[in-house]
Amino acid sequence: MENSLGKLIGSGGTADVYEWTNNEVIKVFKPYVHTEVIENEEYIGRMLNETKLGIPRYIKTIELNNTLAIVYERAYGRTLAEILIETTDKSNIAANFARVHYEINQCYIDNLPTQNSMFHWRISRMRNNLEKDIKKVEELINSIPIENKLCHGDFHPLNILVDCDKYIILDWNGCCSGNPMLDVGWSYLTLNSPSIEAIYGENMANITKEFSNEYLKYYCQYANIDKHEILKYLPLAAIRRLDDNLSCETDNSKYENNWLKNVIFENL
């Protein structure tokens, strides 16, 4: 062990993030996270280091307490979620959030995992849960126009730091090349999760729900598409989320799973 862990600065379903050095943080994965997941994040980090996205750089992967951990460049700022709670101009925040997401989705990066292969893999894992609707799911995923645009995979206000007017996007471990409609659908789904009310209260849930609708409106304006072109693919975002939840139980999964099943089966 090269350094002792510093202050805990972030916690998620698969990992905790600690201070490491003055300019670095370390992402320590939970015991149930498979080695190949960590190695995939390392691979993505190396790919993104070659870009000009202005995001925290991947530094190295080390062994820590008999497991792998990833060291990243440290970024500073307040989360967009904190700012969203405090501001009275939530529509302007939604417009900026949508603009930044749209700009990301206009990028192309070679050699990233493909969205299509990822979703087919997810569906194969969820086949028993999808029961008689598996054919409808396969038809839906095969109807998505194939694109090779950069998709973040988990774009939401807790994964964005704001430093002055600069947005710094974190947690790229789920990024891929694909169609932005699924990327936007995931963000919209996340902002409407019932876990928000269960964990943070009714007021926060109302804020994020209103924010999600404003975000979707602005994104569609930037992309010149109708919102229903995104919403019709929500069952696929819900399948991905349900697969995550069934793989490891978190606070989110306790509140989300029945809701996700309704999103899937009522919208196919």
3D structure, described in words:
The protein has 268 residues and is α+β, with helices and mostly antiparallel strands. It has 2 domains: 8-73, Phosphorylase Kinase, domain 1 (2-Layer Sandwich), CATH 3.30.200; 78-267, Aminoglycoside 3'-phosphotransferase, Chain: A, domain 2 (Alpha-Beta Complex), CATH 3.90.1200. It is 51% helix and 18% strand. The chain is built from 12 helices and 10 strands. The protein has helices spanning 35-48, 80-86, 90-105, 115-125, 127-130, 134-142, 180-191, 194-200, 202-223, 228-231, 234-247, 251-267; strands at 8-11, 15-21, 24-29, 58-64, 67-73, 78-79, 149-151, 160-163, 166-169, 176-178. It has a 5-stranded antiparallel beta sheet, covered by helices on one side. The protein has a 3-stranded antiparallel beta sheet with strand order 6-8-9. A hairpin with a 3-residue loop joins strand 1 and strand 2. The chain starts with 7 loop residues before the first strand and ends with a helix. The model has no long low-confidence stretch (mean pLDDT 94).
